[in-house]
Amino acid sequence: EALREHFGFETISLVGYSYLGLMVALYSRDHPERVDRIVQIAPVPRRFGTAYPDDQTADLSTLSAEGRSAADAWQAAVDAATTATNPAQLCRVQGRFLAYLLVGNPANHTGIPDVCVYENEHYVNQVRHLEAHFGDIQNRDFPKDGFTQLSLPVLTIHGTLDRNAPYGGGLEWATTFANGRLITVAGAAHQVWLDDPSVLDDISLFLDGTWPVRAQGFGRQ
């Protein structure tokens, strides 16, 4: 809201990826008169810990052989880590695992950038962030009624192999908003645009005021 005021915009459109998919929904709930439309990309659920059907979730068992090997190497590196362990080196072992975790097609793992040049991405710092930040969010329950009253257009994009935020959560968001629609990307994971770059065209079309053809509505509006 401070940014909107700073730039002098009367209304804005918002795009939120992962936990920010929840944040843009919360902002719209609190400031509905300020938001034209929302895009949620692989949003986290409204309430963490929600049980979704098996075909709406994905876990590490869905990783490729390369991904499972990277996961094993990461666990071994964590187990062997000491205060003398090079933080950037440990980060890169983790990064290789995350590269496979974040995509559905293992061939797309090379699209994940190396963030280990940033100290805040090093494991010890990342853990502190996650424990404080997600530790708080995961304990909250944002009532559904706060979102069902919104009438603005909402496009949710979610991959069926998302191991970070369950596909069921994206489906739930799309059916919660009165004017929500969902693009389901079969076989895509958390960074859905790497598995299907055409979602970027869908987003541009939506922000220009047109629903993408493959956006599924649920008949509430």
Question: If you had to describe this structure to a student in words, what would you say it looks like?
Answer:
Strands 1-2-3-4-5 form a five-stranded mixed beta sheet, sandwiched between helices. It is built from nine helices and five strands; from the N terminus they run αβαβααααβαβααβ. The model has no long low-confidence stretch (mean pLDDT 95). The chain is globular and about 55 Å long. Helix 3 (65-80) runs antiparallel to helix 4. The protein has 221 residues and is α/β, with parallel strands linked by helices.
Helices and strands in order:
Blueprint: H1 2-7, E1 12-17, H2 19-30, E2 35-41, H3 65-80, H4 87-101, H5 123-137, H6 145-148, E3 154-159, H7 167-176, E4 180-185, H8 192-195, H9 199-207, E5 216-217
Parallel strand pairs: 1-2, 2-3, 3-4
Antiparallel strand pairs: 4-5
Secondary-structure element string: HEHEHHHHEHEHHE
Rounded radius of gyration (Å)? 18 Å
Number of helices: 9
Count the E strands: 5
Uncertain runs: none
- Identify the overall geometry: globular
Quote the distance from N terminus to C terminus: 28 Å
Based on secondary structure, the structural category is alpha/beta
Average pLDDT, rounded to a whole number, is 95
Query: How many strands, what sense, and barrel or not for the largest sheet?
Result: 5 strands, mixed
The helix content is 40-55%
